[in-house]
Amino acid sequence: MSVKQGSTRPNSPQVRNPEDRRQRIVEAAAELLTEGGGRLTHRLVAQRADVPLGSTTYYFATLDDLVEQALQHLAVQTDAELDEVAQALADSDGSPEAIAALMHEHLQDADRVRTETTLYAAGIERPELREISRRWFKGLVAVLSEFVDTETAQLMAVFADGVTLHASLHDEPIDRAAIERVTRLLLAGSYGTSPDSTVTETEKS
Asked: CA dist 111 to 8, 74, 204, Å?
């Protein structure tokens, strides 16, 4: 599940469990990153987590350390989302229409879009974080490779990256019909059929 922008926490400044307090700090930093990480400070994180300012510097000596842990937290959430994608694909008929519907639904979730673009932006700004940033892409390729060949899976994942970035910069994501047209072309290359054909795994077997 993605970080929900502006989520609230109970007003409980005295968190006794050190691990709970640390986790609250990480989650707060992750929220702030998805809202615009350029303004991230120890003070803002402490305010969002509802903990004393000294707690953030106690657990994370530098902002870089805190940012890395926050990004790891976001990456773990994308793993859960990939599990949902895999299950949805398995439950579908594998047609371009079904895949386009799943992709379009994904793009309608602003929190998911923010999470993924936050991870990519971090990898661009800090090369040492690129493995974290690539986690979604690699995971999506692995999921898609269960249904199509690896090359097509990579191309579809690249397309998914592109429409995700588009959605992050526009009020509305690209329309479902356009997604379906591109998906049909990509699947045609995988199945060796014309773009107008709809071929599912069931039909192939």
From this structure: 15, 11, 36
Question: CB count, 10 Å around CB of 11?
Answer: 6
Q: Can you tell me whether residue 8 is helix, strand or coil?
A: coil
Q: Torsions phi, psi of 148, nearest 5?
A: -135, 175
Cα 201 to Cα 67, 115, 180, distances in angstroms:
42, 31, 17
Mean pLDDT of the chain: 86
**pLDDT single digits (tens) 63-102:** 999 999 999 999 999 999 999 999 999 999 888 999 999 9
Of 6, 33, 27, 5, nearest in space to 15 by CA: 27
Q: Which residues of 82-104 are buried (b: 16+ CB within 10 A; e: fewer)?
A: beebbebbeebebbbbbbbbbbb
Q: What gap in Å lies between CA 122 and CA 35, rounded to an integer?
A: 13
The amino acid that residue 125 corresponds to is E
Please name the amino acid found at residue 146.
Answer: E
Structure tokens, 152: 């097509």
* CATH architecture assignment, domain 18-189: Orthogonal Bundle (1.10)
For the CA atoms of the chain, what is the radius of gyration?
20
The CA-to-CA distance between both ends of the chain, in Å, stands at 34
- Mean pLDDT, residues 34-56: 90
